[in-house]
Amino acid sequence: MTRLQIHRPDNGSPTDPPPPGNGRSRGLPDLPSGIGAANGAWIEDLYLAWLEDPGAVHASWRSLFESLGDDRFLPRESVAGIPPDRRSIFDARPRRDAGPAPVAPGEEAARAAERMAKDAAVSKLISAYRRNGHLMARLDPLGLRRAPLRPELTPAYHGLADEDLGTVFHCGRLGPTPQAPLAAIVERARKVWCGPIGVEYMYLRDERRRRWVEGRIEEAGGEYPLDRPTALRVLDKLTAAEQFEGFIHTRYPGAKRFSVEGSDALIPLLDLLISSLASAGATEVDIGMAHRGRLNVLANILGKAHSDIFEEFEDRFEPPPGFLAGGDVKYHLGYSSDVQTPEGRSVHVSLAFNPSHLESVYPVVEGIVRAKQDHLGDADRLRVVPIAIHGDAAMAGQGVVAEMLNASGLPGYTTGGTVHVVVNNQIGFTTPPELTRSSEHATDVVKVVLPPVFHVNADDLGAVAFVARLAAEYRQEFQLDVVIDLWSYRKYGHNEGDEPAFTNPVTYQAVRGRPSPLARFVEQAVAAGAITPGDVEEAAARIRAHLEVELHRARATDRPPGELGGLWKGLHAGDHPAATSSPTRFPRERLEGFLEALSRVPDGFHIHPKLRRVLERRKEVAEGRATVDWAVGETLAFATLLSEGFPVRLAGQDAGRGTFAHRHSILHDQQDGSVWLPLNHLGVPQASCEVIDSPLSEAAALGFEYGYTMARPDALVIWEAQFGDFANAAQVVIDQFISSSEDKWNRYSGLVLFLPHGYEGQGPEHSSARLERFLQLSGEDNWRVVNLTTPAQLFHALRSQLRRNYRKPLVVMTPKSLLRHPRVVSTLDDLATGWFHPVLDDVTVEPDRVERVVLCCGKVYYDLLAAREAGGDDRVALVRVEQLYPFPDFLLEGVLARYAGARDLVWCQEEPANMGAWSHVAPEIASVSRLPLRYAGRPRSAAPATGSKYLHDREQAALVKGALEAR
């Protein structure tokens, strides 16, 4: 039945404010105290019931509805098809000729008012169950955590007495009939809202979604039976999960596996969730999860061959000669496959690789999904769906969850809603919930995006199946987040070798001797007639035989590594014999054409007066009247790649303007606020460009961009830190994903990091991008780390990211003051005919006259250059090491050979001696030079820089002088 719609104010408030003075609902005169707009949905139900049958409501309400007049309600014959734009009784306007509503005289009026007040009390009682029933739901399989009866869930709290229990009241959709005795209403409310499913949804600000959830839950009536096909699916998945864990436990005793036991329901839940998403239009599902239950998910959801998993337990890997052993532990590995659902649909399911930093994979998966959606043109975001599987303690405790939730609704980061599954085993390593979070539920952090939360008892597989399908339907219906909180337990300690009773004796007294989830399900399902003992025996025998065969296969064969597929097809590992780079130069005439296009805005676009100069300068460069500065070099790198079909995505805090106001890639109309992105209007066929002002986040924002590169090797993806040291807050992503994913997982990324770096006297917090940390993480040719000094170098470095048939991350120490330095310029010919130089030699000196060679990188070069010119000394050569890793030893050796008469070799840097590049470059330089190497720079320090501009200037002058003068 189509229900009457209460019209809401524009601000999304669930009810219209009452008119001043009387507190009554608009359009419903003479309501008793306590009944108002907050009871709107319930009164709408009453009204609909009266339209269908006037005798279905109490006489007091019948009298009230009849008093409204014929123009205030719809004719009874049209109840079944009420148009959504028709006004409800709450939008009624009194007729001009209508007098006050008739009031029954004397005692009859008092009885009517009392009855209406009790009706309102029943409405509030039902609302209390809808709002707070989850706090009393039977969620804990161990029965250790059950809240006492809450006062607001008792009739007495709302002024209803025992003698009212037999009175019939209207209960709307709660019951199977619109009216029922109060005792039956209370029983029904407890069954629906305090059973094995507890629902949080009343805070949803969109009434349509709120009523949608409420309707689905109340229609089920607190009963969640399994039909035979679903029961057989659950039996198969639970049996597979239990047999898999037991098989490993006996064949590989003592091996860590972080089993799913106790939370076995996760496996049928994911199976039903994925198939339901596929039925609702999804063709790809990407999963991120930590290590708990991961092997089981790989085997029994993604279909990874058991023999492959057993081979990992056999641990017979031998690295090639001369190579360190890479790889990762088996419960961190990912996988992808095409899964066939029982309904006959094929869905591609991927599980992202993840280290032990549990929640850090959440933004990575979101980035992967967004990249796939962008590539497929999935504007509705229905085809690719993310599933984030969390632990209860990790979800509540790790801040990256809140960061990603905050970003999830923003245009540059939305994926159309994530299905969150919390494996709530009610413990964090050894710590119980009351010591790991301040919130009532582990899921309370998600309320920043206001999703419905379905808490469910993992021992009730009917309820688990119900919420799996309901969550999938909700996500596809509304393209918004939804949460399943799977209350379960952990059979063993944190791993199978731990003794959990050391710290949690009461919990593990309840766990010991408890029938397994499979045994409990079988007992209930057989008793209900959904499955037979024969079904149970057949499933167990079939799965056990399969495991034996797979173990034999694992011990008998070795498998070669797989080839790259999808968008990665044709790309290689960096050490592959076929790995090559293509030239990065670009025709000058086309560069000039792009600059012309980039200097224009649409007719009628009101650009800020100061930015006209930015556009004019682009045109001057095209015409040869100006040189290429940093902003132009960067912009032309983007434009040329776009014209070659490579998408560009640049994200960071204030990335559109640039922290130091050099970029201005997004222009804002000064009158109406509309925006113009010139890079999307080059006047030639091109890929798309996104420039995104990110939320104030580093860990989630960087993880998202890394994930994006995992699915879009064809795109230039850049994360820009507002200041380089902001990367500190994303160190987990840098350490565990970007720097090491190739070595651990054979997963490649072309992500670019822009990290503003340079000592400008701004204090310890905004001087250093912590270059030393990136160099410390460098090894096995895992990425490139550069500190560039010219726009041409930036242009060619960025283009080289895509102009090669392999992918490596690129870490760029970007400048601050050099963005507008008059000497930090290049020519269009440098872009049109040049290439990237890992080492820039000094072309301004005569090699035969040089007595001292100063090696440096980044901004300090220009300080050295100015001081050398001021002193007029032509016996010092300034050589820039632009690429710090992989270190260009062969190239540097050739440059140093030119200065045969040099007697002094110096490394000069702005950073303290225990920071910057010194510790990294010293042994590398020593390996290619006959000269002893000395250091010129700041001494060792606990902080990157001084907070005093005066001391900074003095230190800077001293280190420059020390580098240029003889010792």
Overall morphology? globular
**Low-pLDDT residue spans:** 1-27, 71-100
Record the strand order, biggest sheet: 3-9-10-8-7-4-6-5
Q: Looking at the chains present, what oligomeric state does this protein adopt?
A: single chain
Got a strand count?
24
Overall pLDDT metric: 89
Strand content: 5-15%
**Biggest beta sheet summary:** 8 strands, mixed
| Total count of helical runs of at least 4 residues | 29
Task: Please state the CA-atom Rg, rounded to the nearest Å.
Answer: 34 Å
The helical percent reads: 25-40%
Structural class: alpha/beta
- What's the end-to-end separation, in Å? 92 Å
Architecture blueprint of SSEs:
Layout: H1 40-52, H2 59-66, H3 106-132, E1 168-170, E2 179-181, H4 182-193, E3 197-200, H5 207-220, H6 228-251, H7 266-279, E4 284-288, H8 294-300, H9 306-314, E5 335-340, E6 346-351, H10 361-376, E7 384-391, H11 392-397, H12 399-407, E8 419-424, E9 453-457, H13 461-478, E10 482-487, H14 505-511, H15 517-528, H16 533-556, H17 588-598, H18 609-622, H19 630-643, E11 648-652, E12 667-668, E13 675-676, E14 689-693, H20 699-711, E15 716-720, H21 731-738, H22 741-745, E16 752-756, H23 771-776, E17 784-787, H24 791-802, E18 810-814, H25 828-833, E19 839-840, E20 852-856, H26 860-871, E21 876-881, E22 883-885, H27 889-897, E23 904-912, H28 918-926, E24 933-938, H29 949-964
Parallel strand pairs: 4-6, 4-7, 7-8, 8-10, 9-10, 11-14, 11-15, 15-16, 16-18, 17-18, 20-21, 20-23, 23-24
Antiparallel strand pairs: 1-2, 3-9, 5-6, 12-13, 17-22, 19-21
Helix pairs in contact: 3-4, 6-7, 6-15, 6-16, 7-13, 9-16, 10-20, 12-20, 17-18, 19-24, 20-21, 26-29
